[in-house]
Amino acid sequence: MNLLFGVAGAPRDAQSRLDRSIRQIAGENGDLFVHPMDSGGYDEKYCTSFLNRFEKPLANDHHNRLKRTAFVALIIERPNIDIVCKFVSPALFARRVEWNFTHGSATISGKSVNELVKRLRAAANEARTWVTQLGRNLAQNDNRTPLLLPYRNFRSSILQPSLDRFQKMSCGDEDDAQLQIDSACGMIESSHPRKSERGKRSYFVDDTGLQFHPPGSARHGFSRPNFKNHEVGCLLNGRRRLGFPYDPAFHYDCTFGRNQVRANLCTCHEDFAGRKGNPHLNVAPNDFLRGLKK
After folding, report:
1. Fewest CB within 10 angstroms: 32, 58, 161, 211, which?
2. Is residue 209 scored above 60 in pLDDT?
3. Which one, of 124, 119, 159, lies nearest residue 241 by Cα?
4. Do residues 171 and 278 both lie within one domain?
5. pLDDT at residue 39 is higher than 90
6. For residue 139, what pLDDT band results from cuts at 50, 70 and 90?
7. Count of domains in the chain?
8. What is the spatial distance between Cα 285 and Cα 112, in angstroms, rounded to a whole number?
9. Which of 195, 206, 189 is nearest to 263 (CA)?
10. Residues 11 and 79 placed together within one structural domain of the fold
11. Same domain flag for 9 and 136
């Protein structure tokens, strides 16, 4: 598994040093970009441009050559950090990095940036452990895991908090990470246990009673760039979940169990509204809808 790391919140004075430390931070199978920031805290404009740095490679990846590259955000503590954490979830795996720039002489500021390099490397190593374990769950178990359920259209009081909580979890090793992944999945499934019917794969049911049936091998929900006025984040969420590159054709067949489905659903870039499908609607993990009927 390759990894692409993006560093958010680094001061411009530290960028050249960080650019020289890509291999030291990202490792042999990683790459890294720094999205520099002036003084102050995170805001929506900065977060959008940061997210776009991850999305641009996907927009040019017409043959899915990045299918083995995980995306990780290394977010330096600054005011309004919750804004950027909300922006990157649930597409990216994120690690918060505590660090304050010590201004002063070249020696003092240099030591401060060296400390940042150490902390970024530690965060990157931990992220690698998490993404490796998450990948084993999402790649080998995508038809059964709750971690790919649509972030907004699966109505649940537990799904979004469970996915967002990964940003704050820490782990000692792969076994520890797996225990916490199992715990998160268990919490979701305790509220939304899989249902079974004869001749069908097990499926999840949200709080409105809408059934989310996994596709098995019938996959056709591919997320394409520059399609239907998508916004920054639509494609990224359609290719990554918690940083891992899941199958872009994965989707759920959604129905209430009747011949026609009518539900109040959003799309990946549009608000909630009444939607209709016959006999069902395809809902991707990024909330993209297919099969809409007028």
Report:
1. 161
2. yes
3. 159
4. yes
5. no
6. confident
7. 2
8. 40
9. 206
10. yes
11. yes
